[in-house]
Amino acid sequence: MSRTSNLIGALLLVSACQKPPEASSPAVPVAAPEAVRVKVAPFSLSVLQDAAPSGCTWLRLESDGRRRALVTVDAACDGLQLAWSADGKHAAVRDPAGSARGPGRVWVVDLTSGQGVAQLLPDEGLTGAVGFDSVGRLVALTAYTGELARRDDAFLFEGRRIPIPDEDEGAGLAHAYRLEAGAWKRIETVATRGDADAVFALTTTEMLVSSTVAGDADALVAQGLEEDSHDAARLDAVVPRRGHDVFGGWARVESRGGPLFAWQTAGEQTALMMPVRWELEDGHLGEPECLALPAQSPVRAMARGDLLLLAGEAQVRVYDVGTRRLAASFDGFRAARFWPEPGSRVPHGATAASAQP
């Protein structure tokens, strides 16, 4: 009887860690069996899920598998950006790419009732971000580098002279708008150099408690390894075949439970991807329990307290860093992150380049 029980337990563990088969339709979220989970304090996640035929549903997902749909929008999940009000009662879902129905939009969501209202973004310039001010009002930040009236070293705008920056190549205007009674009201205009971070020239940006270009406070920072480093040599030895030929190198991510290693793409904006390794109990490098992501999958690493979240394109794995055991596993969800704690502010020095993926 004991041997039979052990065999059943082993089969449950193996089946739970096997990579899910490829499917022609979006996978139904499935939590890993209790047999492979380690018990941790309850936590909540923010996730996106594809909705037929071409929309996206934003959900709050609990660690025990319970979920609450907050709003479904007629835009693809890829590229959607989120921001929360300071009191945690309202949020904004931004569709920067727009859709077949028109230009970029933002949905203002009441997180208590789950009701969302669509609002077109300002049509003057390109919206770089939306966010909430300290009293919960929605703000949009835009940049415009098209044809502008100018005289000498200043732009002429609505009867005002706005000095042009010293390096005026590509210079333009950045505007801040506040949503009032369903309409956008311009509250600030400044001249900018017209680069990717133009909206950060606005004083209003510093006043936002949350925005769609603020870095995730739970995101872990990766540090590239030198090719001839000891850690890189260890990784090359245990991972002779990466499963892809993406140009890059190994990177190290520090967490409360010790370092995590992953392949990092090269370029101006780097990203982590498989394979992923960390030290097991016996000191050897191995893949985190039941990670099982596709060989070319991107990987985002986040941590909160003793929890480590690893997210692929549509997979979520949460680990207890103390035991290095799997705490929760879900498939079929995109853009997973820990549910923000009320009152979090925009990190100082955040830039458009450090925005959410």
Structure commentary:
This protein has 357 residues and is mainly beta. It has 2 domains: 31-67 and 218-339, no CATH class; 79-213, no CATH class. It is built from 3 helices and 25 strands. It has helices spanning 2-17, 203-207, 230-238; strands at residues 44-51, 55-62, 67-73, 81-84, 90-95, 105-110, 115-120, 126-132, 138-144, 150-151, 154-157, 160-163, 172-180, 183-192, 210-211, 222-224, 248-255, 258-265, 272-279, 285-286, 300-304, 307-311, 315-320, 325-331, 334-338. The strands form 6 sheets. The chain has a 5-stranded antiparallel beta sheet. The chain starts with a helix and ends in a 19-residue tail after the last strand.
Class by alpha and beta content:
mainly beta
Strand order of the largest sheet: 14-13-9-8-15
Instruction: Calculate the mean pLDDT score and round it.
Output: 84
Gyration radius (Cα, Å) is 23 Å
Q: Helix share of residues?
A: under 10%
Order of helices and strands: HEEEEEEEEEEEEEEHEEHEEEEEEEEE
Number of domains: 2
InterPro entries: Quino_amine_DH_bsu (IPR011044)
Please tag this protein with its features.
357 residues, mainly beta, 2 domains, five-stranded antiparallel beta sheet, disordered C terminus
What does this entry show, briefly?
The chain has 3 helices and 25 strands. With about 350 residues, the chain is mainly β.
